[in-house]
Automatic annotation (TrEMBL):
Coiled coil: none annotated. This is Coenzyme F390 synthetase-like protein. It comes from the Bacteria. Residues 189-307 form the AMP-dependent synthetase/ligase domain. InterPro entries: AMP-dep_synth/lig_dom (IPR000873), ANL_N_sf (IPR042099), CapK_Type1_Caps_Biosynth (IPR053158). SUPFAM superfamilies: Acetyl-CoA synthetase-like.
Length: 460
């Protein structure tokens, strides 16, 4: 059963999602052109974009890039529905009990991380969510096509999502929304908080016994270590990862430990299902519904086969909060050669931010793995800082540099929040230095990492 009110539209959408990768290159271009025209027509209801169209012209090529800070500064003019006031949306996402509920009875709402120093709020209407759900269901990695058609939402599986379940983040909102709108999904899909101490998380997963596990690569590595130690005793048939870069080494470790395939996907708060792996292990962009343009530092397009300095995103599905040539920040490279799997959707490689896991000793002298996304979630949600870098200097020492302004009391609050979290994880003999300044460590991806292990860490 599809979670939409109109079965006819749902069936047509599903057929189109199945057909697009198999259609001709010309048919894919026609889809993009028609959907781009519809997006520009819808964006005419946005005062922000009307001004840009008048100034630059109403074509994609004429539009300058736009960043998250600019859009959030003009939020009231950006959105196309007057019910979407920023203050009301912030009140909505401040309540964890509303995760997965519809704002104003109609809109799905989530917040992005502040990885660029600017947290944002993204709103999708039911039509956009239907598109994301369809792409997720019918193009998810792995499994024969007949199985995806017979059971697109894995209702025969027992699924576990391991992530930040206490905030209005895109993955968590999507999971809770499906549990609310689809009969039977609540009994087959559960979220588990990676902020919980590892023994608590392991015990909960042991009791749930998932057949499909969806999480971040760093969390999958932690769970593989727990399984290798005999504490985690689950036997998933498939592990789906996203949110971080999945290295070949981590894929091999996790796959060998659990004896199942580990597959990667690519998504963002700005578009949930940007790409998924095919059976050949290549990442295909869902270019029938989203456009990505790798550009250099001057905003000029780069040729296929070369990564850009950043990537501009145009969301063809979201008409209530248009994103046109939005600076995504990721470095994306298009493969000039078609994939041997037969899909017409382009193959891409993504060089996103790669943060480190930290290994710190607990009271017994054993190593505790701290996940980078868990650490950044604590600092953002509980401490209220977004532009920072946490560096492990040695086996017992951490240095937190915060680029945002604030007084000494604010620094002490951040320090207290982080130390409290470390103690909850069993780490209470760490030396933590907190100061203001400009983070100094930069990564190969072009993005500044927010969690860095200068001290050597190990993997199983």
């Amino acid at each position: 059963m599809w979670p939409y009110t109109d079965p006819r539209s749902s069936g047509a959408m599903a057929f189109d999602a199945w057909m697009a990768p198999r259609d001709s290159a010309g048919a894919l271009v026609r889809r993009q052109r028609q959907r781009l025209e519809a997006l520009f027509k819808a964006a005419g209801a946005s005062a922000f974009y009307r001004r840009r169209f008048e100034r630059h012209g109403a074509t994609l090529e004429a539009q300058p890039s736009v960043g998250k800070q600019t859009l959030m500064d003009h939020f009231g003019d950006w959105v196309c529905d007057r019910r979407l006031s920023l203050s009301a949306l912030r009140d909505f996402i401040a309540d964890p009990a509303r995760i997965g509920l519809a704002f104003a009875g109609e809109f799905s709402v989530w917040e992005s991380s502040g990885s660029s120093g600017v947290p944002a709020i993204f709103v999708q209407d039911s039509a956009a969510m239907a598109i994301y759900d369809t792409l997720e269901a019918l193009r998810r990695p792995g499994g024969p096509s007949w199985q995806r058609w017979m059971d697109p939402f894995c209702l025969s599986e027992r699924m576990a999502f391991v992530g930040a379940t206490s905030g209005h983040f895109a993955s968590t909102v999507s999971v809770e929304r499906l549990r609310r709108v689809m009969p039977g999904m609540a009994q087959r899909l559960r979220g588990f908080d990676f902020l919980d101490p590892t023994p608590v998380l392991v015990d909960a997963l042991n009791r749930w016994r998932p057949s499909v596990l969806a999480t971040y690569p760093s969390a999958a590595l932690l769970l593989a270590e727990e399984a290798a130690a005999g504490r985690l005793q689950i036997a998933p048939r498939e592990i789906l990862t996203g949110g971080e870069a999945l290295s070949d080494a981590v894929r091999e470790i996790v796959s060998r430990q659990f004896g199942c395939p580990v597959r990667a996907s690519y998504g963002a708060s700005e578009f949930l299902t940007l790409g998924t792996e095919c059976a050949h292990g290549h990442l295909h962009l869902n270019s029938d519904w989203v456009l990505l343009e790798p550009v250099d530092l001057d905003g000029r397009p780069v040729p296929a086969g070369e990564p850009g300095a950043t990537t501009l995103l145009t969301n063809l599905a979201n008409h209530v909060q248009p994103l046109i040539r939005y600076d995504l920040g990721d470095r994306v490279c298009f493969d000039p050669a078609p994939c041997t799997c037969g899909s017409r959707l382009p193959v891409i490689a993504v060089q996103g931010r790669v943060d480190d896991s930290l290994l710190l000793p607990d009271t017994r002298g054993c190593s505790v793995r701290l996940l980078p996304l868990a650490l950044t979630t604590v600092l953002e949600d509980d401490a209220g800082v977004f532009d920072f870098q946490l560096v492990q200097q040695d086996g017992h020492s951490l240095s937190l540099t915060i680029a945002e302004s604030g007084d000494r009391a604010a620094l002490l609050h951040v320090r207290r929040v982080l130390l409290d979290y470390l103690r909850q994880q069993g780490v209470d003999a760490v030396e933590l230095h907190v100061h203001r300044g400009e983070p100094a460590v930069h990564g190969r991806s072009g993005k500044r990492p927010r969690v860095v292990a200068l001290h050597a860490t190990t993997t199983p």
